Amino acid sequence: MLKRFPGRVGIWCLKRPELRRTKCALYSASGAYLSDRSYHERRENSNENFSKRRVVGVVGVGASFLLGIYGYRYLKDDRRQVSSTEELDEEVASYSGKPGGRIDGLPTYKMADVAKHSSAEKRLWVTYKEGVYDITDFVDSHPGGDAILMAVGSALEPFWNLYAVHKTPQVTKLLEQYRIGNLDPAEAKENAEGHDPYHADPSRDPELVPSNKKPFNAEPLPERLIENYITPTEYFYVRNHLPVPVVDLSNYAIEIEGPGIKSTSLTLEELKKMPKHTITATVMCAGNRRSEMSQVKEVKGLYWGPSAIGNATWSGVKLSELLEKIGFDESTNEALHVQFEGLDLTPESNPYGGSIPIEKAVDPKGDVILAYEMNGKPLTRDHGYPVRVIAPGIVGARCVKWLNRIVLSKEESPAFWQRRDYKGFSPNVTAETAKWDEAAAIEELPVISAICVPSKHDHVHVNDDSTVTVRGYAWSGGGRPIIRVDVTSDGGDRWVEAELVEKSDARPGRHWSWTLWEVKVPVTASQNQVELWAKAVDSSYNVQPESFKHIWNIRGVLNNAYHRVPINLVR
Amino acid sequence: MLKRFPGRVGIWCLKRPELRRTKCALYSASGAYLSDRSYHERRENSNENFSKRRVVGVVGVGASFLLGIYGYRYLKDDRRQVSSTEELDEEVASYSGKPGGRIDGLPTYKMADVAKHSSAEKRLWVTYKEGVYDITDFVDSHPGGDAILMAVGSALEPFWNLYAVHKTPQVTKLLEQYRIGNLDPAEAKENAEGHDPYHADPSRDPELVPSNKKPFNAEPLPERLIENYITPTEYFYVRNHLPVPVVDLSNYAIEIEGPGIKSTSLTLEELKKMPKHTITATVMCAGNRRSEMSQVKEVKGLYWGPSAIGNATWSGVKLSELLEKIGFDESTNEALHVQFEGLDLTPESNPYGGSIPIEKAVDPKGDVILAYEMNGKPLTRDHGYPVRVIAPGIVGARCVKWLNRIVLSKEESPAFWQRRDYKGFSPNVTAETAKWDEAAAIEELPVISAICVPSKHDHVHVNDDSTVTVRGYAWSGGGRPIIRVDVTSDGGDRWVEAELVEKSDARPGRHWSWTLWEVKVPVTASQNQVELWAKAVDSSYNVQPESFKHIWNIRGVLNNAYHRVPINLVR
Q1: Closest approach of B401 to chain A, Cα-based (Å)
Q2: Which of A142, A471, A484, A510 is catalytic?
Q3: From the list A444, A492, A539, which residue is nearest B539 (CB)?
């Protein structure tokens, strides 16, 4: 099982002078690892029994903290040569104590003692229940360099409440390898009493099939997705990275700051007094269709199907107008990026964040909106109430929800999700060799399409004219309209152009909406099975790549290879 | 051989009331058809003997006029059932007369008689030397619909001088099938005395390897191409569609007109008084690398290698500033396109033309330049002296040379090259099924790369570290920078990231220059041959498609599949 939890984990950093280094959060905030349940399994489950739709997947968010230790200690540490993952599994399994339980004969510490051990010189300690652990050796030589744990000098429980993937016997047993003492029982009880950080999450529509519940991530069934050109809010995909914040409007205001502008604080009411703009724009997760890429080789992240995308109308204030109003002058301003921070917080109270290039933000034709309405109604909590960013043509991860702060800067957002996530890599780059600082953050997305009807392995009725009817969507980033969708049932010997049945008439460069298409694809009389392929072409004549093999990447993002759907034919 | 000359040909149209229909020029102005000589053959020839570099290929421009008749008459006419191309070849070969020679017993006509036969009612006649021909039957049922010949009622010689591909025994023999009479010998002599329309073309540098000489089209050798980040003017590829016009500066002025602007005429001197801007931008032909696509199935057009691209500095006036100066107001102006016309003319005195979207033209960051300097010196005649358009990030075909006229319009340029050429189609679209009016004109180009060193079938020295050194270029349209180039020697089992050795630091959206790259790719000790593949990724994370099969198109444009170069290893 070890292979499924790579030792390298994502990080983000805070300057912590007491550590004499930058302190970094060590986790993959980008998604749970669904070890046992693929997208298609989820989908089938959902089909079989609608009432079971809210299946409990393997809950949790990402390879993280001790998973990192787990992989690293056993694979890299010279002192322990482990020849196989089976050996490791055995070793971990052989631990028979109760994780975090009191062990007689070990010294007892207070949290105050533990807190002193949060610098390299004084060793790095953490606690879990009644256990105290020294993880210094790991931290000093961690492959992620300065990827130090946010939790050093404190308790693990708040992290593990947030990223529930840790709550497995393997992880807790492994932790015991680092055991050095016992924690004062009263303090251990206090640490354990952390509430579920997701307790205030909203209820969701049963149309949404979750790939993860904490944080909540879910998509509709593909055939439902393309029923409407404007995706109804209730089954617009949800991609949360953290618990949904509870916003008190009486305290809510967006702070805006940066060089050359007047620092400003805007309540929702003040925002609504500015000119209101409405755009129709598709928003898509960088991980959409990841379950297909994972067929080549496993990747990190939520195993999305093809429905982590939606098209909605968004109303709010144009960022370009707001910035102009508070004094932004492009000819003199040195800012290169506009950073956004959400109200959703990590255990260390660091906000979710992302940034977009300044050119996009200040271009009136870039149509970046601080949206307070979705499909004509106030944003729902899952979609960012009261205000979120809509940066059309750009990856969903930058469309920061529960918007709290806007910062103009020469630098991209320092947030984990901008610096250590949502980047593409060459297929042969591994977690160990990835040069995160050199890779480009995903902003504009490439051209993509998907077949939504039929679904994989469906039994499909052959039309009288020896065709099957195929329907789906296509979209491209950067405001580039879709100019063509080709579909084949014979491996591309005969491509058939789809009819673009619903699309926007917006001009290239400002064409933010998806295109819905339909086509009747000929099938040979003798065939009982065929594999449908779809590919789209955008106005720059960029086309989808053929297969996942050559675009595979460690994070499983940018899954825009031809969509291939094997089906059974029924006559 | 017939298959090589499809019956369908490109057209452009003039309203000719006397024909009671639109009169159309019937030709492919976009390039010669090299039936016998591929790019690599040209290249090898060039390598073998530099002095023979200016090889005379199969000269001419496009499938055209009688080639259209040729294909159509024999394939479609019910009266003649030809079972194979061999049969047709035999039939044509059996004609033993002298094409255009006098045939006793036929009536003799004057040009004035022929001119009367230029309407559907009065039959459609043409002449060639002393021959008079009635091509009505073909014209009435031509698969191109209203694709009537520009030459009806007149002599063919001016067309054939311009598009020398007609001057083959096959075409002239075929013409005799339509023979109805003899032309007055004195008038025939007059017709024959037309001068070579290319007589005033400039001399060219021997570094340029022509794929066609009339009109002149040539590219440098790939290894020469990437020697410089800024391509020297003398071997910057040349893609002319017509003879190079002779420009008299004392008569030269650019006319600008359209709704909502002050009609303006600007001499070069006046242009130079406006603020001068310099940009560095790559210009590429839509047909670059076409010789590779033709390996899948033959395509129409010049068989370019990978060097129909170059990167230069361009200085001149910003179109956005010029338009603003003469009153353009985007908030009220209804124009959607900016059309350009060159001084290069067809036999019927129609100019070469193309257009770009208005948004590109009026955006100061779009950097569209009316350039009068290339690499710091006045434009050469081959590159558009005195003024050409540089629309960076957009296909070379819209960067109109010898600029004569600018028209703002709701419509795209009516020119052949905008409406009936330089468009992409689905692989299964044929000349007969192509819906030209529905297809999108190529503007922004997709991401592309090429391996320039080594070349196909080169014997390459293996480095001491068991690698081979590979170098090339990569580029993308729309101002999108290249963020990565991957190269493999084993079919993509192991991709190696190239170093981006020379590139611009311009921001995304305004990144007009190419990127030069270099990489050492590992090769297995036991291999004597490998095939190198290269693919690039741009800032929108669009990536090149894998193979030509699924992007093949009738016009052989947008040849951006992985560049695949088989080489021999030398140790």
Answers
A1: 23
A2: A142
A3: A444
pLDDT (mean) for A406-412: 98
Which amino acid, A454?
P
The residue length of chain A stands at 571
Contact A426 B484 (CB under 8 A): yes
Mean pLDDT of chain B: 83
Which ranges in A98-146 belong to alpha helices (H)?
A: 111-116, 136-140
Read off the pLDDT of residues B451-508 as tens digits, 9 standing for 90 and up. Answer: 999 999 999 999 999 999 999 999 999 999 999 999 999 999 999 999 999 999 999 8
CB-closest option in B442, B443, B545 to A545: B545
Report the C-alpha gap between A69 and A176 in whole angstroms: 12
Count of Cβ atoms closer than 10 Å to residue B141 Cβ? 12
- Closest chain A CA to residue B484: A426
Interface test with A, best of B430, B438, B541 (most A CBs within 10 A): B541
> Taking CA A482 as the corner, what is the angle to CA A476 and CA A484, rounded to the nearest 5 degrees?
135
Out of B166, B241, B510, B511, pick the active-site residue: B166
More confidently predicted of B291 and B42: B291
Q: Is residue A105 classed as helix, strand or coil in its secondary structure?
A: coil
Is B337 a residue whose pLDDT tops 80?
yes
The verdict on a CB contact (< 8 Å) between B507 and A447 is: no
Assembly ipTM: 0.79
Phi, then psi, of B93 in degrees rounded to 5: -65, -25
Q: How far is C-alpha A192 from the chain's CA centre?
A: 28
Q: State the pLDDT at residue A349.
A: 83
Burial B425-454 (b: 16+ CB within 10 A, else e): bbbbbebeebeeeebbbbbbbbbbbbbbbb
C-alpha triplet B15, B19, B20: angle, nearest 5°: 80
Fold of B244-419: Sulfite Oxidase; Chain A, domain 2 (3.90.420)
> For residues A325 and A339, is the Cβ–Cβ distance under 8 A?
no
Half-sphere exposure of A55 (CA within 13 A, CB side): 21
- Look up residue B41 and give its two tokens: 């053959």
Number of other CB atoms surrounding residue A11 within 10 Å: 26
Question: Would you call B13 a catalytic residue per the annotation?
Answer: no
CB atoms within 10 A of CB A446: 26
Q: Please tell me the CATH code under which domain A2-28+63-192 is placed.
A: 3.10.120.10
Q: Are B235 and B311 in contact (CB under 8 A)?
A: no
| Candidates A357, A492, A541; nearest CB to B446 | A541
| Every domain of chain A and the residues it spans | 2-28+63-192, 448-570
Residues of A in contact with B478 (CB under 8 A): 478, 480, 540
Cβ contact B336–A507 (<8 Å): yes
pLDDT exceeds 90 at position B78:
no
Sequence-separated (6 or more) residues with CB below 8 Å from residue B318: B275, B277, B364, B367, B368, B369, B370
A500-505 long-range contacts (CB < 8 A, ≥24 apart) are A502/A229, A504/A280
CATH class label, A448-570: mainly beta
What residues of chain A lie within 8 A of the CB of B558, using their CB? 541
Residues of B in contact with A492 (CB under 8 A): 427, 549-550
pLDDT of amino acid A150: 63
SS3 B113: helix
Catalytic pick among A166, A277, A290, A484:
A166
Cα B550 to Cα B16: distance, rounded to the nearest angstrom: 41
In the numeric block, which tokens belong to residue A272?
């609504």
Q: Which residue of A has its CA nearest to B549?
A: A492
Taking CA atoms, what residue in A is nearest to B538?
A446
Residues from chain B that touch A478, judged by Cβ atoms under 8 A, are 478, 480, 540
CA A38 to chain centroid: 16
